[in-house]
Amino acid sequence: MNRTGWILLVLLVIAVSCGFGYWFFTHFEKVKKEVEIGFSGEAARNHLLAAQHFFEAYGISINSVEGIARLPEQKTTIILPTERLQLGVDESKKYLQWIENGGHLVVAATHGYYHEEARQDPLLDLVGINTVATQFDTEANEDDPSDEDEDTFNPAAGHGRCTDNLVDVDWPGLANFLTITMNDRARLRLDKTDYPVALKLTDEYGTFLLRLKIGKGYLTVLYSAGFMGNALIAENDNAIFFWHVAQVDEQHPIWLVFNDAMPSLWSWLLRNAWSALLSFGLFLLIWLWYASRRFGPLLPAQATARRRLLEHIEAAGRFLWKRGHAQRLYKAVHHGLMRTVELRHPVWLSLSVDKLRQRLAEISGLPIKQVEQALADTQARNEHEFTKSIQTLEHIRKSL
Asked: Using CA atoms, how far apart are residues 387 and 380, in angstroms rounded to an integer?
């Protein structure tokens, strides 16, 4: 391609690029759009974080906790808007005893969150409080039976899909009504109880707050605790309503329990055994580094050599010879020879010593002098003579 062709090609590419750019910017524009991504960080873990900051701004001593290992000192308000699945009858009685001594406990009726008729609430059963479905809930279920599972209320999420409603609260002592967000699925029902009612708030659907006087303290029961969550506390009068719910005769320190579920194993280990996990991690790194310091394959293990029986006998004989026990070895060999004579030629044992030696020399083919010396050698002078005598006796024994 000549120079003119290259110039035309470049001009064509520029023209196409300019045309595409003009078309793109005339048909598209950059816009900003807000996307709901939910809470993050500490607010995602603690759905009562906004309530904590609200009370702290007014100088109230407040403590957010995840689960209650032990009950605090008296004159304390515990806000417990959780499901309380781990709170059985015995633990519920401990809470009531704590209230009688002057504590203030605020709970939510967990039975109303999920429409499970078989589910029990041990704490509320002890004081005679139950829940009852409202007319709103009954009509909603008749219109769409599948709506029951989709619209269940979750306190951690803040509010349900279509079951929250604005309620006007006539709080005693206040000049104006408070407008709050309250779930309409069900309401509280006070059955037979032994405790006086200190406060009762109702709306068109029924009772949504009950406060019982128990000994020196109070038990405040809310049907729904969604207004406390991060998503709703800033709306309407939810924050000021929460303020009045937490206060009783006098201002107490507050414990906000945002979660009382059993933590996962990894969460528990990271919180309570982080030092052990760190030590194990360092040990694992050091071990991996040490195990990697090798080049080439591992050498095969050498097979263990198996020695012959005669080597063991020889070693035992040398041990006894060096310890001065040669006579024991000689007597054992001599006894074995005479035992063989007794078994194979028992008549020879009645012969005289000279005739017996002569017979043994004849049958073994050894000189008579060597046989006599081997049979009479009760005390060998050196290792050579001892070995020669033992060999002679063994030769005679094998010849019988």
From this structure: 9
What does pLDDT average to over the chain? Answer: 79
The number of folded domains in the chain is: 2
- What is the distance between the alpha carbons of residues 111 and 85, in angstroms, rounded to a whole number? 11
Please, which contacts does 40-43 make with residues 24 or more away whose CB atoms are closer than 8 Å?
A: 43/230
* Domain containing residue 87: CATH number: 3.40.50.880
pLDDT exceeding 90 applies to what percent of the chain? Answer: 9
Which residue is listed with tokens 């010593």? 353
Phi-psi region of 397 (alpha: psi -120 to 50; beta: other; left: phi over 0): alpha
Tell me, yes or no, whether 73 lies in a domain.
yes
DSSP annotation of 311 reads: H
Q: How far is it, in rounded angstroms, from Cα 388 to Cα 370?
A: 9
Q: Tens of pLDDT along 291-319?
A: 777 666 666 776 666 666 667 767 777 77
Q: Which of 224, 245, 261 is the last residue of a domain?
A: 261
Residue 256 lies inside a defined structural domain of this protein: yes
Q: pTM of the entire structure?
A: 0.56
pLDDT given for residue 305 in this prediction: 63
At residue 147 the predicted structure's pLDDT band, cuts being 50, 70 and 90, is very low
Task: Based on the fold, state whether residues 214 and 105 are members of the same structural domain.
Answer: yes
CA 79 to chain centre: 29
Q: What distance in Å separates the CA atoms of residue 129 and residue 112, rounded to the nearest whole number?
A: 12
**Half-sphere CA count of 362, side-chain side, radius 13 A:** 6
pLDDT in tens, 319-347: 777 777 777 777 888 888 888 888 888 88
Q: Which of 222, 241, 261 is the last residue of a domain?
A: 261
- Three-state DSSP at 205 gives coil
Are 252 and 316 contained in the same domain?
no
Q: Which domain holds residue 351?
A: 311-399
